[in-house]
Amino acid sequence: MGDPTFSIGMKLRHARKIKGMRLCDLADQVECSEGFLSKLENDRVKPSLQLLHRIVAVLETSISNLFSESNDSIVSRAGTRQVLHTSNIRPGEGVGLETLVSPSAGHLLFGAIHIVRAGGGSSGTIVHEGEELGYVLEGELDLNVDGVEYHLMPGDSFFFPSKMPHGYRNPTDKETKVLWVNTPPTF
Amino acid sequence: MGDPTFSIGMKLRHARKIKGMRLCDLADQVECSEGFLSKLENDRVKPSLQLLHRIVAVLETSISNLFSESNDSIVSRAGTRQVLHTSNIRPGEGVGLETLVSPSAGHLLFGAIHIVRAGGGSSGTIVHEGEELGYVLEGELDLNVDGVEYHLMPGDSFFFPSKMPHGYRNPTDKETKVLWVNTPPTF
DNA sequence: TCTTATTGGTCAAGTCACTTGACCAATAAG
DNA sequence: CTTATTGGTCAAGTGACTTGACCAATAAGA
């Protein structure tokens, strides 16, 4: 039937979930009421442009993001994904991690990302809420979960709650591709 | 430090989430109190073997499942995954779908599965709660979401809320491999 | 002009799913 | 015959979200 689109409300909710915020947290920072945000995310009201501006600023997205790519955002094609260099890691240094944004951007519950990692370096040890699941497409990955080291080869997969301290690194000098999916920090 | 294991409570909660049940639903069917189930899933009490039996019956799992594979369940190796032929579809017929259980079995929030589909046939049209995300590893997949048909090739990915009517089929006579992840019916 | 809507928003009560603490019966132990 | 311990219930509490009643400000009609 109609074009498969995602409403502004859905996109806003996703953006909030990705940042692990509750409605009341967002309401605090945006300086509006929790109730209004609830209605907004359920597409029962439309915000003023001023308010929308404050919201996207807090959620680190953009207004155009909310309106663009409404159509055909269901599928994202190989080679057409946007590459995000992970912030505060300079390319070619540290973990050397690039994130190919999968269909997730602007959507709902999944914080799904497709990671391409160039060799060398190591992530720090990470602890947070949510859960992680991954599948190694190419290359090798050393995954450390709760003090146990796993050496992963293509076709291997993993799953763990994000609150288990975890880190990873690419032990080779070749690129490693991992399909990495995680739930938002809070559910 | 300690072995990365998943508690019985976590496994029970996962099994329940996968079936989209609330604590009160399970309590109804098992004929025990909601409060007790809550404590059970948070590992604050231990159930009698009788009660545990009734619970795993409703959740369609097994007691041994709850205790086994406690260790090293973080990682599942290529070629070592259990194959589940989707129930009420006879192999070689219909969608011809096999599910390679990924690390998900016995775990928490993700209903993550690794699907291997032999050629031919078609899934029906599916509508439910939750969300779906997939990545085509090999072969081709025709995905229909909300009336729109997408032809997917390796490297393509998709995302949609499960309440959009969706179906899929393999238009070729070769096997298609999709890494298919979905959130539980209710969050 | 003075109604009369409509829009953008607040506030407090309600709801839903889950959690927690108080309590209780039945078996075990001293 | 006390006194714990275990397995369990019940009802009140909690956290996050939703909803309905209401209100001020701008717009529109007669």
UniProtKB/TrEMBL annotation, chains A, B:
Record-linked SMART domains: HTH_XRE
Source taxonomy: Bacteria, Pseudomonadati, Pseudomonadota, Alphaproteobacteria, Rhodospirillales
UniProt cross-references to Gene3D superfamilies, sorted A to Z: Jelly Rolls (2.60.120.10), lambda repressor-like DNA-binding domains (1.10.260.40)
Signal peptide: none
Any Pfam family hit: Cupin_2
Keywords from the UniProt entry: DNA-binding
Domain named HTH cro/C1-type: residues: 12-66
Superkingdom of this protein's organism: Bacteria
GO molecular function, one term: DNA-binding transcription factor activity
A cellular-component GO term for this protein: cytosol
PROSITE patterns named in the record: HTH_CROC1
Coiled coil: none
CDD domains: cupin_XRE_C (cd02209), HTH_XRE (cd00093)
InterPro entries recorded: Cro/C1-type_HTH (IPR001387), Cupin_2 (IPR013096), Lambda_DNA-bd_dom_sf (IPR010982), RmlC-like_jellyroll (IPR014710), RmlC_Cupin_sf (IPR011051), TransReg_Diox_bact_type (IPR050807)
Record's protein name: HTH cro/C1-type domain-containing protein
